[in-house]
Structure formats: C-alpha cells, structure tokens
C-alpha cells in the first residue's frame, strides 16, 4: 500500500501523487493530513519552510471540496505573489484527476478584471495575497461568505509584512462555522492573537520544536571588521565554487550596492528589492530559478515567498533587525530533506545577536574562519581539475588536433597539466597572494594566522577527501560516514566543506594517524577513497611532506566534478 494511501487520500489524489513521483510523506504531511481528513477541525501547524506544507493542507482541501458545486469553498492566503502562484499551480497539479475543480490565483501586479473573471467561472478554491484579496472584496468582485475552509499559509510572514488588518478584515467576511487551518514557521504573539480570535479549539501539530530551525541546515558565523564585510563575502563565494545562494541585506540600498559590486567583480549576481518593478522582479526570479544567477542579493521583504529548490547557502551579509527573521532566511536552504548552510558575516558588536538567535532556533552556530588566500587557491585548483576531467569532449576538436599537437609537441605531460591549470588558477593566485587575513578574534583585534609549520602539537588538521556532492554526500552525511568509518566521536569531525566532487574536513591532530591508516587502499562500492592532509593551515608539517612526496597532484587521478559558470573577478 502506498504510504500516502495510508493517510486516507482518495484515488484521484493518489494518481496525481504517483505522477509527481512523491513516495514518502514528510513529517508535517503525516501529522496533518489524517487529522484534517478525519475531522472538521481548526488546526495550527508549526513547521519550517520547505517541509511540504502546501501538500499538507492541499491534499485534504482538494479531497473535501465539492467539485460539482461552483461556489467558492476554500480560501488560501499567502504573503507574496510568488508563493500565491506556486500554491495555485501545485493545487492544480494535485487535482488534475478531479473533474470540474478550478483554482484561481489572486495577486497584485496583474489584471484585476481577468482575475475576477477566473473566480466567476466557478473557482472552488482561491489562492490570494491579502492586499489584492481585500481590494477585490471592497469592489464586490469576489464572494467568500460561503467558504468552508480558510488556510493562512506562512502566517508569521504575512503578519511581519503588515497584513494584520487586511487578514482580520478578510476573515470578517467569512462564515464563523468554517474550518481555519493556520500554517506557520514560528509562533509570535501576533499569530497567537489570530489563532485565539478566529479559531475554535484548534488542533496543534509541531514539526521540531516551536520556532526552532531545521536539522538540515548548518549554521556558521564569520567574525570580521565591518569594513571587510564585502571582501569576506567574496572569499566565501570563492571557497564555494558551485554556490547557489541568497544573500540577505537589511536595506534596499545595501542590496543594490552589494549586487552591483558582485557583478562588477565578475560574479553571476542580481538584486531583488522593493524598488524593482514587477516585470524586473519576474525576470530576476526566472534567471535565478534557471541558475543563470548564482547569487541573489535580497531584502527580507522581497525574498518572502521565494521557493527555489537546491539553494546551497544562505548568506547573512547583515543580520536582520528582528531576530525571528533569521529563521525565515535560513529556511530558504536545507529544503525537502536536503542539507544547506546558513552563514552569517558578523562584526564583534553583533556577537550577542548570535547568542540570541541560538536561543530562538535551538541550534548552535559554528564559529568559522574566513578562508585565507591559499585555502581558496587550493579549492579552486581542485575544482578546475574537476571541471577538466569531467568535461565532455567535443569531437569537432579533432579537426584542430594536428595543429594543436604541433604547437604543444615540446611540452611534456606534467608541464602541460601545470600550464593548463595555471591559466585559470593564476588569476586567483595573483589576486589573493597579498590578501590580508580578514578574521577578527572575539577578544578583539585582527587574527594573524600562523604558518602551518608553527602549529602547536595537538592542533587541528585539515584533510582533503576525493568524494563530494557528485557521490551523494552533503556535510551531514559525509561527517556521519567519516565518523562511523574511523570510529570517532560525534564532535571529533568539524569544519566539513563539501564541494561537487571533493571535500575538506578537520579533526584534532590526535586522530590523524587513525584516519590516514583507515583510508589506505580504502574502497567503497568498488572505488578508492583517498584522504590527504591539506597543505593549508590546520595540518602538520609531516602531513604536508607526505602530500609533496607521496601523493603528487594529478588532474587524471582525482575524482573531480563540474562547476557552473562563474568567472574570476579581474
């Protein structure tokens, strides 16, 4: 029996679920769907963004709607145009086998008369933003006096955006005997007020702890001087060549300035803020969804409702004014069970905010160092080799090979590899070779990282391993694999950075011998997995000598992956 069938869903929905490839319900779906199907009840559901909330209320709503009755029976309010459209489209996919069921989307920035026509054609379900919905009620274009179900999705975000009066006014036009389902990531007092005022003894389900962050997101902070914030952002991007991120700024001005600087420095970036027209906003989001943009710089208001899969990083260029907003930011990554990283670039005066956020999300931040120049160059070197190895050969090049071989005939293989790698690697090396350390000690003053030779006995050691995302790993699963394989404790492995086809991690120096011995001639699924000590700070001199003598780098013998388009800066 299909796991969704066990929740009580009917045949039409199960057919649509099979078409969409859904196999296992998420936790919020498992908890919410049976309750909403079994009873006519109000519900408050607390769950993070990206946990499958649309299906959690969408499936029961569709199953309870009478498709033969053209009266509007269900109303869904959501904070933004993007989320409203997403919900409407998903409900249409869910109900594809339910004959006669219509879903209308009502939102600002589009023709209000066309939307009114969609409703009058017999839309049993309306997905709407509060502002446009209130406008249409005032104009007599929509009738919600007979609805049976009202869903408030991302309720905390709607209230944060100032929609309290609109929501209360809209709900005043609905019948008292309806069922209200409230879905929210957090439970601030405004959401509690809505629940008390418009709901009757609601069932409450919680996925994780109230207001807590999701377990799939790793939280990190980088302590720098305020004037070095932008340089730190660039280094974090360069240390993650396959980054696909949302960068949050507090103001529209900062958002535009940071995006312009990134574009000028050669990154695929764009700004998203309230001064953009709807057409400009749509173009930016389309480019971001298709990954033509790798770094989307946004304000909190503009980013609300963004639902884009596989965002690898959220970068807090500045912390939000409201601490609770951090949860919404970090929820843009680590969605649908995948892992993600939320980074905070923070000045010393803001460290107290990190502690406050930890208390709210019930997760610990890891203090990390902004990568130094050699760490970035090493990552980019491996990434370039990865790109070369995995590039598909264009057979048209055969026509030019005789002439190319003639030009290169006096260069031996090793020198040829060095020259190829140096074409791109040289740009990073020349840019960063005199770069200063950006890290600041929490006790004050700029850090001055010691050279590898000066590391004290028993210091941290950083390792390179030739597996990454291409092999199905993220930071969490790689950490678990290493810990289980070497029989280490929960906190013995840290600073895990997973790239597309290689990764880095740290341990205390006391574990180095065990790790290197375990991964000598180590195979998994028929493939050799190699671990080497990184040449960057964090390793011992002995480890670096081993790198130089016993494990010479070659683009042909590492498991390197492929990277998206992103040029070097200047």
From TrEMBL:
Annotated Helicase ATP-binding domain residues: 34-205
Pfam families tied to this protein: DbpA, DEAD, Helicase_C
Short sequence motif named Q motif, residue ranges: 2-30
GO MF term (any one): ATP binding
Region named Disordered: 533-570
Organism superkingdom: Bacteria
Keywords: ATP-binding, Helicase, Hydrolase, Nucleotide-binding
Keyword Signal on entry: no
Residue ranges, compositional bias (Basic residues): 541-551, 561-570
Keyword DNA repair (UniProt): no
InterPro entries: DbpA/CsdA_RNA-bd_dom, DEAD/DEAH_box_helicase_dom, DEAD/DEAH_RhlB, DEAD_box_RNA_helicase, Helicase_ATP-bd, Helicase_C-like, Nucleotide-bd_a/b_plait_sf, P-loop_NTPase
Gene Ontology CC: cytosol
Domain DEAD-box RNA helicase Q: 2-30
SMART domains tied to this protein: DEXDc, HELICc
Helicase C-terminal domain ranges (all copies): 228-378
Family according to the record: Belongs to the DEAD box helicase family.
Protein name: DEAD/DEAH box helicase
Species this chain originates from: Sinomicrobium weinanense
Lineage summary: Bacteria, Pseudomonadati, Bacteroidota, Flavobacteriia, Flavobacteriales
